[in-house]
Amino acid sequence: MIHLDELVVVVNNGKLDDSQIESIELISKKVNVLVTDDFVQVCEIVAKHKYKIVIIMTYAESFPDTWKINEIRCNSPVVILAGAKDFNLFSLRSFIETFEEETDVTTDNPLFRKSLMYIEENLHENDLSLTKAASLAYMSRCHYSRMFQKYLGTGFKQYVMTKRIQRAKALLQKGRLVTEVCYSVGYNDLTHFSRVFRKKVGVNPSTYRLQKAESSRGRSS
Q1: What is the reported pTM?
Q2: Sheet harboring 7-12: ordered strands across?
Q3: Whose CA, among 1, 43, 115, 122, lies 20 to 30 Å from 131?
């Protein structure tokens, strides 16, 4: 099992604007974050601390020439993210939240954890199903459902719905069009999406998007 303190996000400093700084601050509330332009420092920290996952990212399209990524030496998986965009950062935060939510999943269930990552990565797929996720964990539908209830305290359908609405809210906060968001989170019926969103959030997607836009303008004025 990977705990949040065993994961580190390294951010190449570069030139960060206010929204990028805000995104980094959100991530730093969950996990260890190092913002630096010193590649030697990165190598030393990664080698010294026994992190189980190392994520190295930059907002630029590529890392500086002084950052010899292939020279990093550690025994942990290293995830490289260059040209980080809003969707990449949302996916990263969702990835981190997966570890936060699944801290009760024991180490003898790596296939179950793998299935949860599959769900996270395929929320945009309309045909995301219990059968597909269960097959990844090499379990029957019935057993997989019981595992879900045991470890997460909720059913598969409710879990996926919650994850999709969380992603929809994040995209709407970024100003994405409601129709675009609808398809981006796995719904192919705008009416159904709006109904589910309203049930979970209390307002329809258009209203939520407008509220967040007005709130953002208020903070910037």
Answers
A1: 0.53
A2: 32-36, 7-12, 53-58, 78-82
A3: 1
